[in-house]
Structures are given as structure tokens and as C-alpha cells.
Amino acid sequence: MKKRILVLGCTGSIGSQTLDIARKMSGKFEICGVAAGNSREKVAALCREFNCQGTVFSEDGIKGIENLIKNSGADIAVNGIAGAAGLEPSVLVIENGIDLALANKETVVMAWPVVKEIAKKHNAHIIPVDSEHSAIFNLTQKIGCENISELVITASGGPFRNYTKQQLETVTVEQALNHPTWNMGPKITIDSATLANKGLEVIEAVRLFNFESKNVKVTVHPQSLIHSLVRTKDGMLYAQISNPDMRHPIYGALVWPEYSENYLEKFELFDKEMTFFKPRFDDFPLLSAAYSCAEKGNSYTIAFNAANEVAVHAFLEKKCSFTDIAKIVQETLTENWSQVPDTLEKVYAADKNARVTANSVLNLIKKAGGNS
């Protein structure tokens, strides 16, 4: 029997690659619904191609996604929606008892304690799709969290890994959007360049696998061949290795808990070079800020994510500099975010407050001519 897949964020990078897998493996998978933020024409074309239902978030609102989820008959939903907008769809999926292949970081960063309880109540599984967390997920499944002392997340280092502090101050939007190894959407590409993305992944790892932040390490690995490692209590390191292709972790989530044959290119060790470096915390301060938020918990992780979204959006619109992104986030985090977000309403309230604060910081930077 074919597995029925619902694709949320069907026109983005994750969604498009999920559809590619379904096309190539039509005997195994069936697309039963698609949703996108906009572009009615693209959604309509996909509905015709896969003979499925569809909705457009910007026009149909959350009600459109809610109806799609309820009526799709999905076995699993892939959430590739970018940003905080992906949280509510994640909740709707698991409330309907549907397994969730999760590429939306904000679901975990903003609301994991709430989401985890909802998933437990409705007997829905959450399988991470981020390449790093997919790797850790698979390694912990095989080895057992109780046998692991440390998680090691790899980072490409982004396009500015070797830039000096002075060079970082003159980075352009066009330069930041040119990632050396991954083809991703603009928000996550900028996050990769600032290492905010790796910071979000540290927070995710702490929450998904119930590890303390001090036991989650980051190593810069420019080739992006090792996606993460775990260190067992006897000191040994175990890695998951594959080509940098997001279809691997997507496919892994779709077939979990099975491991099955597929059409994807198998990794060969021959003629490959792998190098590793320590992250430059001083020059990429958002990674340090994320560690601090992961340790403090409560609404700090929500504030980190919200302020970063505001700052990245401003940078993409050329309203602030590349290094201003970190300044906006750091300044936002000086406020008190110790409130416990134990309901979705409190999560959204903290998110809204953080965005207001971040926009105020942005306006001060703009008034100062970007020289604050």
C-alpha cells in the first residue's frame, strides 16, 4: 500500500524535493495534499499533476490548511514551511494524529514542550528532517540516548567562514545568498551565513534529544559530508555520512522506521576530503547567543528566533547591515524573557513581544545610520 503524503510548503526547497521523491518513487508514495504560502497557479498545477487537494496560505488562511489536513487522509505530513508561520500547521497535523516529518525549526525552538505533549496525546510521531537532526535521530535510534554522552552537530561554516571581522562588516545580500554547498531558501541561507541556523539547531538538539546545551557541540565541516556525530560514553565517535542532498533525510523520514532501497546516489569515500574546524564564536556571535538561550530556556528561545527573523528580513530588504543582524538579536535578548510559555497563546504572545522589541532596535540602528 502506498504511503499518503501531505506536503506543507510545497513550493519551497523541502517541499519541492519531497515532490521529486514522490515522482521518482510513485509506486511507494502518493501525494494526497499540497499547501503553499502563495502562488495559486503553482498549487493548482501540482493538484492537477498529483490529483490531490491544495490550499494557499496567504489567501485561504489557517482554515484552509486545517481543512486540508483533516480531509487529506495523510499517513505523514512534511512541514517545509519557513519561519514561525510553520508552527500552527505542525500543531494541526499532530492534533489529527498524523505523523510529522519536521523541517520547520520554529516548531521546536518556539514551542517544543507544548508540541511534545500534543503529539503524545494524539499518538503522533515527529521525525526530524533537518540533515543534522535526522543524522542524530538515526544514530540515537541505533545506539540509544542512554549510551551517548555528547552530540556533535556539523556546520558548513557558510560562505564567510574565512572572512575577517572587518570583511564581515561589508558583506552584501548577494554574497550572503551564495551558499557554498547547500541550495536553500533565502532565510535559511542567511541564517547559515551568520551561524544563526546552527544556533537554532543547537536549541533543537537540546530539546529533541533531551541533552544539556553543554553536551551539544558544533564543529565546522565545510564539505558537509558528515551531517552529525554522537560520542558514546566510552569516548568513541559515530557519524552519519552522505552527499549533501536533502532528499536523503526527507526520504528517511518518509519511510521511518524502515530502511529501504531508493534511487538516491550512494556516498563513496574515494577521493573525498573531510576537514574540521572550531567555530569562531567571537566573529559569529549568534551561535553563542543561541547557546545562552538554550540554557536559559523559557521564552528566550522564542525571542532569539523572532528577533533573528526580523533582522534577516531587514537585511534582505537592505535596511540593515550583515553584522547588524547579530546586534538586533543580542539587544533584544537583553530584555527579560523568563516567562514560561506553557500554552500556544503564551508562545505567540512572547513571539509578538520579541518582534516589537527587535523592530524598535532596528529603527534605532537605522536612525544611527547603521553605525550603532
Q: What keyword list fits this structure?
A:
372 residues, alpha/beta, six-stranded parallel beta sheet, four-stranded mixed beta sheet, 15 helices, 48% helix, 15% strand, globular
In short:
The chain is of the alpha/beta class. The chain contains 15 helices and ten strands. The model has no long low-confidence stretch (mean pLDDT 95).
Order of neighbouring strands in the sheet with most strands: 3-2-1-4-5-6
Helix content: 40-55%
String of helices and strands = EHEHEHEHEHEHEHHHHEEEHHHHH
Please state the overall shape, judged from the principal axes of the Cα atoms. Answer: globular
The N- and C-terminal alpha carbons lie at a distance of 60 Å
**Mean residue pLDDT:** 95
Low-confidence stretches: none
Using DSSP, what is the number of strands? 10
Any overview of this molecule?
Helix content is 48%, strand content 15%. It has 372 residues and is an alpha/beta fold. The strands form two sheets. A six-stranded parallel beta sheet has the order 3-2-1-4-5-6, sandwiched between helices. The termini are far apart.
Element layout with pairings:
Elements: E1 3-8, H1 13-24, E2 29-36, H2 40-50, E3 53-56, H3 57-72, E4 76-79, H4 87-95, E5 99-102, H5 105-121, E6 126-128, H6 131-143, E7 148-155, H7 165-168, H8 173-176, H9 186-194, H10 196-208, E8 216-220, E9 226-232, E10 237-241, H11 247-255, H12 285-296, H13 300-316, H14 324-332, H15 344-367
Parallel strand pairs: 1-2, 1-4, 2-3, 4-5, 5-6, 7-8
Antiparallel strand pairs: 7-9, 9-10
